[in-house]
Amino acid sequence: MNYVASILSNPIEYLKGVGPQKGELLRKELAIHTFADLLSYFPFRYVDRTKIDKIRDIHGGMDFVQVRGRIVHKEVIGENRAKRLVATLRDETGELELVWFQGHQWVQKSIRENVNYLVYGRISSFNGALQISHPEMDLLTEEIAGGKQFLEPVYSTTEKLKARGLTAKGIGKLTKNLLEQLAPTEIQENIPADVTAQFKLMPRHLAYFKIHFPANDDDVRAAQRRLKFEELFIAQIRILRLKLRRQQQSQGFIFKNVGDHFNNFYNTFLPFPLTGAQKRVLKEIRQDTQAGKQMNRLLQGDVGSGKTIVALLTMLLAIDNGFQACLMAPTEILSQQHYKGISELLEGMPLKVALLTGSIKGKARKKILAELAAGEIHILIGTHALLEPEVVFQHIGMAIIDEQHRFGVAQRARLWQKNNTPPHILVMTATPIPRTLAMTVYGDLDVSVIDEMPPGRKPITTVHRNEVQRAQVMDFIKDEIRKGRQAYVVYPLIEDSEKMDYENLMRGYEEVKAFFPEPKYYISMVHGKQPADVRETNMHRFITGDTQIMVATTVIEVGVNVPNASVMVIESTERFGLSQLHQLRGRVGRGAEQSYCILMTGNKLGNDSKERIKVMVQTNDGFIISEKDMELRGPGDIEGTRQSGILDLRIADIVEDKVILAAARETAERILEKDPALELPQHRNLHEFLTRQRSKSNWSKIS
Ligand code: ADP
Ligand code: MG
After folding, report:
1. Do residues 501 and 418 share a domain?
2. Which stretches are annotated as coiled coil (predicted)?
3. Pocket of ligand 1 (CB under 6 A)
4. Do 270 and 359 share a structural domain?
5. pTM of the full predicted structure?
6. What are phi and psi of 662, to 5 degrees?
């Protein structure tokens, strides 16, 4: 079947009822270019024309209502901008007011008195009286009056389209015209038969008919389920094929041996037994590095879950096989912390670790670069300074990136060029991404998860406090400092209100200072407007314990490790998103002591804020929090998803439809495992569909 010959590829203006002008608008406003695009422009809801509310039963707690009645009165009232058309609708049980603020001249003319209308709209109350403003009005036809099952599709539209008659209903008419001339064979099945049977999916052509013109709710549900599955399944097949292709093309170093360095460290110097999750991740890395392909793995693990030791063991594996390794962190401080920590762990082992950051200059820098090129340095730790072309390894086999979201894909790619065959890449992040999202967004990365905390960690106690309790909070901090602990006080800094936020920070600093006067107490202040060296000094004083309190903006969010800090006070908590709150909270609870997170807010809170605070108080689990965050904000706001294009879904929703997504993913994996090139006869329809569609969409964006 030649797709080009199908009428579905016809330009939209050729459809009955469209023409050049409307065609232009449909392209511009809704990106509907072809018949096929219109077919995939799904209704966002349906009106059940059989469900009629009695006016007597309508109350303010209702949302949308549908009434059958006559207009018994209409009049234009008010002056100028308050001018509006008010009509009275009457059924056999009472009367209801209808209001139009715009277009009332047209409405006045077109709405007739004393004939039956079907009226639909959102109920609101005005001066104590219930009304519907800008209702949808339909002259009641025999069919509806006869009480037949009748679900009417409602399409979203725009003001410009409405002005040309393409209202929600107008679009429905076009769709009807299209479906009337479309033979079922034009819409070919694209899912293998055993899959449609397994999941009891409606045939494709039926689904496209029923999604637009269902007979009843069951039709809607079945059509939606089929089309959601199709959308997610096709997307997964595409992502997985891209990945397969990359794996087939990419060469990777083979780490054959687990050698002396790894074993010696593991048996002699490992300070604690690994958790089950850490072992599992190491096994996954081990498998990747034996496969002869370049590893591209994302390691997700909540703050404090122990990613560093996994990184170190992975680097030892590389060294055992004759390679060098590097660890890149987003800031100077984090690099130093890693350097210090890893050097200490490797004390007693014959390995050379070096630190390279932007501030290491002159002779010291030259020396490092020379030793690196000569292969004398085994592990190089540093900031993005490592990416500079002058940083040349003798033979790098493993590159690890900590705190992934600060580095882009392009930077990752620069690491690939550091050897003739690209080194294996391990990207570590403490920003948990919901499983569903990771499945879709990180198409080109394999994902490992550390979902288990090291033993003996005391869960952080999180409480919610308000202004009235501020003095108590300060006293609590005093108690903790007396016990030898340290505390953070963090203020929001939002771009839009930066100036006010800085004022609040300064006021907060003064306030804290009043409670904690020198010389008994010392305070570090850290924010983005300070010169870098002042900021570093302040951070450093807190890390060494010279200051007991750190007042800061969210610049401390990433990675800073001060195990002695046991209190995190977050000011104006209501202004932070859930993931950010969780990241901030992760700055404490890193030592053996009980730690606390105190969420300060004003007295009046919106529902969303209340919900966020409730979640924070209830759980320490980053994955639960990230799921909740996605539920509250929608996936579009989660880091890195917006640009990926993966969320341009027409009908499926990765939050609501995660069960379908998981099934689609598993099915796609199973099929490609058996038949990577989709050559088997039972996959022919799928293969043809993908080939037809390839030219149409830019799927290569997703990687
Ligand atoms: P993150 O995943 O946030 O980078 P780290 O690697 O910094 O976490 O580990 C946090 C702390 O937990 C460190 O002090 C580390 O030594 C400790 N740790 C890591 N793994 C274990 C383990 N299996 N048992 C006990 N402590 C561990
Ligand atoms: Mg870390």
Report:
1. no
2. none
3. 272, 274-275, 278, 301, 303-309, 430, 454
4. yes
5. 0.65
6. -60, -40
